[in-house]
Specification:
Blueprint lengths: L1 H9 L6 H20 L6 H49 L3 E6 L4 E4 L1 H7 L3 H5 L3 H4 E3 L15 H4 L2 E8 L5 E10 L8 E8 L1 H15 L9 H18 L3 E8 L2 H8 L1 H18 L5 E6 L2 E7 L4 H16 L2 E3 L2 E3 L3 E8 L6 H18 L4 E3 L2 H23 L3 E10 L5 E10 L8 H10 L3 H19 L7 E5 L2 H5 L3 H12 L6 E6 L7 H13 L3 E7 L7 H5 L4 E4 L1 H5 L9 H15 L3 E5 L4 H11 L5 E3 L9 H6 L6 H6 L3
Parallel strand pairs: 12-13, 15-16, 16-17, 17-18, 18-19, 19-20, 20-21
Antiparallel strand pairs: 1-2, 1-6, 3-4, 4-5, 5-6, 7-9, 7-12, 8-9, 10-11, 14-15, 14-21
Helix pairs in contact: 1-3, 2-3, 10-11, 11-12, 16-18
Bound molecules: ligand C2E and magnesium ion (2 copies).
C-alpha cells in the first residue's frame, strides 16, 4: 500500500468509485445520443440530428473533462496522502511494518529497521512470521514455541517478542490491524514499540516478589505456589511428592560470633550447596532466617528421600569458608510426604516442621520422617508455650525451689541451688519440660531474669539462718549468648543487694564451646562482678578438657551419671576410678567439687574414701530434695552433721 501511495505522488492513481459512476453515466448518455444519430451524414438527418450530435459531443467532451479533472484531483490527493504518511512513519517513535496477505513485509519505517537491525531490503525478503513470537510467557521471557500461526497475528494487540538481526528477542507492545483491500491483496499493518524497560522493571518486581534477595532462591510465596501446582499435578498423575525442611543447627551462634555479614555469606553458600544436591526439576526455597525448604516431585520411595537427606547432611556437615574464616555448621531435616502426611502445602510444611523439631531433639545434623505421634508432641509443646507466655505476662506460674549443697566432711549447708518449677494451676512442669520450649520460643530471657531475681532475693532472706550460704542459678546457653547478660546480673545484684560472691552461675560445657573471644569476654565480665562460676553436669558434654584451662571457672559439678556409677562394694571398679580421676584433676586445677545426685549413704561413703582430705560438697536426695523457700527459712536442718556422723569412715 505504501508503495502505491508513494507511486500516487508520481502518477495519477485510479479514480475512486464515487466519481467513476457519474462519469461513466455521462459517457453512456453521450454514446446513446451518438448512436441515435448514426445517419447524421444524411443532410436531412443532419438537420434533424445536428443539435443532438453537437450536444452528445459536448457531453462526451464534458464527461472526459470531468473524468480527467477527477483523476488529477485524486492523484494530487494520493500524492499528498502518501507524502504525509511516509513523513509521519519516518519520524514515528514506533516501528511500523506493512505486511501483505502472503506475509511479506512490503514496507518498514526507519524505527522498525532500527529496532530490528534489518535493512528495508532484508525485511522485504523475509516473511513477517519469521520475526514474530507472540507472548508473553509466564516468566517474561521469549516464548519457546515456533512462530505463531497467521490466524493468530492477523488481529493482535498485546505483548510479543520479535527476532532481531543479531538473533536476540526484542519484547514489544504489538498491534496488528488488517487494512482494507488495496489493489491486489489484503494488507496488515503492524505497529510496535520497544518495551525492554518495562519488561526489565517487571522482572525486577517479580524477583523482589518471588525470590529471596540474599540467596537468589525462590522465596516462601513462590515455593507455596510451586507446591500447590505440584500437588495438583501429583493428584492428576496419582503420584506422591515430598517436602523437606532444613534448618541450620547453630546459625544464631555463628551469626552472633562471626557477625551478620558472615552469617549472610553462610546462608548464600548453604543455598548453593542445597541446590547442588537436588535435581533441576526440584525447587529449593529459603523460608526465612536459616530455614530452607525443598520440593521433590515424582519421588515416591522413602529410600530416595533418605538418600537425599543423607547427601544434604553430609554436604552441610563440611566446613564452609566465609570471609571471617571457616565455620562448622550442620542442618537438621524434617520430611513430609504428600498425600499421607498432608494434602495441602500448609499441612505438608507444618508436618515437615514437626519432623524437623524432632530431628533437632535427636541430635544435630540428623533427619526425621514425619509420624502422627510427632504431631501430638507438637500440640503439647504449643500448649506449654502458651502457658509460659500467659504466665510471663501475668507474672505467675514460675516458682523456685532450693536444694542444699552440703559439706561432705561436717554436713554443714554451704549453699543452695535454685531450681525452677512451673505451676500455673495446670499440670506442674519440670524444667526439663519447659526450659527447652522457653528457649525456642524466645521466652527464656524473661524466665531467666525472674529466676535470677527471685534466687538473689531468697539468698538474702536465708542469710540470717544460713550465714554465707550462696545461691547457684542455672544459665541456659541462650541466656549466656545474650550480650546483655553481665549488665542484667549486675543490675539484679544491685537491686536485691546481694554481694556478687554469693551468686554462683552454673554453666554447661556446651556453653563454653562457643566463639572463644566472646565466651571469654562474658566470663571475665561475670567474674568481675565477683560471681562464682561452675560447670554443671561435668563430664556429659563435650569431651575436650582444654576449656578448663582456658577459662578460669571455680567449681566442677560431677554429673549424677558418674555418681550412679559409684560402687559401694568394690573400690577398684571403673565407676570409682572415673570419679577419683575427676577429683584428682579438680584438685590439681584448684577447683571446688560438687557431687550431684547423691541418693544413698553408701555413695557418701565411697565419696569420702575417694576424696580423702579434699573438701567436696554433696547435693542430692540423700540430704534433701529441692524444697520451697519457706522450708529453707523455717524448717530445713541447719546442718546435716548428725546424718554425716552415721556414715562410718
Ligand atoms: P541440674 O542443674 O543438674 O539440677 C539438678 C537436677 O537433679 C534437678 O532436677 C534436681 O532436682 C535433680 N536432683 C538433685 N538431686 C537428685 C538426686 O539425688 N536424685 C535425682 N534423681 N535427682 C536429683 P530438676 O530440678 O528437674 O532440674 C533439671 C535441670 O533443669 C537442671 O539440672 C538444670 O539443668 C535445669 N534447670 C533447673 N532450673 C533451671 C533454671 O532456672 N534455668 C535453667 N536454665 N535451667 C534450669
Ligand atoms: Mg544445675
Ligand atoms: Mg547438674
Amino acid at each position: 500500500m505504501f508503495k502505491n501511495l508513494k507511486a500516487a505522488g508520481r502518477s495519477a492513481g485510479p479514480i475512486p468509485s464515487r466519481y467513476l459512476w457519474p462519469a461513466l453515466l455521462l459517457l453512456a448518455i453521450a454514446a446513446v445520443w451518438l448512436l441515435g444519430g448514426l445517419d447524421w451524414l444524411n443532410p436531412s438527418a443532419q438537420a434533424r440530428w445536428g443539435p443532438a450530435v453537437n450536444l452528445s459531443v459536448l457531453l462526451l467532451l464534458a464527461g472526459m473533462l470531468f473524468v480527467g479533472l477527477q483523476q488529477r484531483r485524486t492523484g494530487q490527493k494520493f500524492r499528498d496522502q502518501g507524502m504525509l504518511l511516509s513523513g509521519i512513519t519516518d519520524h514515528l517513535g514506533a516501528g511500523v511494518i506493512v505486511v501483505d496477505g502472503l506475509g511479506a513485509m512490503a514496507f518498514s519505517n526507519p524505527e522498525a529497521r532500527r529496532l530490528l537491525g534489518f535493512s528495508a531490503t532484508q525485511l522485504e525478503e523475509m516473511s513477517f512470521l519469521e520475526l514474530l513470537l507472540v507472548g508473553p510467557t509466564e516468566e517474561d521471557s521469549p516464548p519457546v514455541a515456533s512462530p505463531a500461526s497467521a490466524a493468530q497475528w492477523k488481529n493482535y494487540s498485546g505483548e510479543a517478542w520479535l527476532k532481531t538481526n543479531d538473533n536476540q528477542s526484542l519484547p514489544v507492545d504489538l498491534t496488528i490491524t488488517p487494512l482494507r483491500q488495496i489493489d491486489s491483496g489484503a494488507f496488515f499493518v503492524a505497529v510496535f514499540i520497544d518495551i525492554r524497560d518495562r519488561i526489565e522493571a517487571k522482572q525486577q518486581l517479580r524477583a523482589l516478589a518471588y525470590y529471596d534477595t540474599l540467596t537468589g532462591l525462590a522465596n516462601r510465596s513462590l515455593f507455596f505456589d510451586r507446591v500447590r501446582v505440584a500437588i495438583r499435578r501429583a493428584r492428576r498423575a496419582k503420584r506422591g511428592l515430598v517436602v523437606l525442611v532444613a534448618d541450620l543447627d547453630n546459625f544464631k551462634q555463628i551469626n552472633d560470633s562471626y557477625g551478620h555479614a558472615s552469617g549472610d555469606e553462610l546462608l548464600a553458600k548453604v543455598a548453593q550447596i542445597l541446590q547442588s544436591c537436588i535435581r533441576e526439576s526440584d525447587t529449593v526455597c529459603r523460608l526465612g532466617g536459616d530455614e530452607f525448604a525443598i520440593l521433590l516431585e515424582s519421588v515416591d520411595a522413602a529410600q530416595d528421600v533418605m538418600h537425599l537427606a543423607k547427601t544434604i547432611s553430609a554436604a552441610l556437615g563440611q566446613p564452609v569458608t566465609v570471609q571471617e574464616g571457616e565455620v562448622h555448621t550442620s542442618a537438621s531435616i524434617g520430611i513430609a510426604f504428600f498425600p499421607q502426611d498432608g494434602e495441602s502445602v500448609e499441612d505438608l510444611l507444618k508436618n515437615a516442621d514437626v519432623a524437623l523439631y524432632r530431628a533437632k531433639e535427636t541430635g544435630l545434623g540428623s533427619y526425621q520422617f514425619f509420624t502422627p505421634d510427632m504431631a501430638r508432641a507438637v500440640v503439647e509443646r504449643l500448649n506449654i508455650e502458651q502457658r509460659l507466655r500467659a504466665g510471663i505476662e501475668g507474672n505467675h506460674g514460675l516458682t523456685l525451689c532450693f536444694q542444699p549443697k552440703v559439706d561432705l566432711r561436717d554436713g554443714r549447708v554451704l549453699g543452695f541451688e535454685a531450681l525452677a518449677r512451673w505451676n500455673d494451676g495446670g499440670r506442674a512442669l519440670a524444667p526439663a519440660q519447659f526450659i527447652p520450649i522457653a528457649e525456642k520460643a524466645g521466652l527464656i530471657g524473661a524466665i531467666g531474669l525472674r529466676v535470677l531475681r527471685d534466687a538473689c532475693s531468697a539468698c538474702i532472706a536465708w542469710q540470717e539462718r544460713f550465714p554465707g550460704a550462696g545461691v547457684a542459678v542455672n544459665l541456659s546457653a541462650v541466656q549466656f549468648r545474650d550480650a546483655r547478660l553481665p549488665q542484667t546480673i549486675a543490675r539484679t545484684l544491685a537491686e536485691t543487694g546481694l554481694p556478687g560472691h554469693l551468686l554462683e552461675l552454673e554453666l554447661t560445657e556446651s556453653i563454653l564451646l562457643g566463639q572463644f573471644d566472646q565466651v571469654n569476654e562474658t566470663l571475665t565480665n561475670l567474674r568481675q562482678l565477683g560471681c562464682m562460676l561452675s560447670i554443671d553436669d561435668f563430664g556429659t558434654g563435650y569431651s575436650s578438657l582444654a576449656y578448663l584451662q582456658r577459662f578460669s571457672v571455680n567449681v566442677l559439678k560431677i554429673d549424677k551419671s558418674f555418681i550412679d556409677g559409684l560402687d559401694t562394694e568394690v573400690s577398684e571398679v571403673t565407676g570409682n576410678t572415673l570419679v577419683a580421676a575427676i577429683l584428682a584433676m579438680a584438685h590439681a586445677l584448684k577447683l571446688g567439687v560438687v557431687a550431684e545426685g547423691v541418693e544413698h549413704a553408701g555413695q557418701l561413703d565411697v565419696l569420702r574414701r575417694l576424696t580423702q582430705e579434699v573438701p567436696i560438697s554433696v547435693q542430692g536426695y540423700v540430704y534433701s530434695r529441692p524444697v520451697a523457700l519457706d522450708e529453707v527459712l523455717f524448717s530445713l536442718p541447719l546442718s546435716f552433721e548428725l546424718f554425716s556422723n552415721h556414715i562410718e569412715l
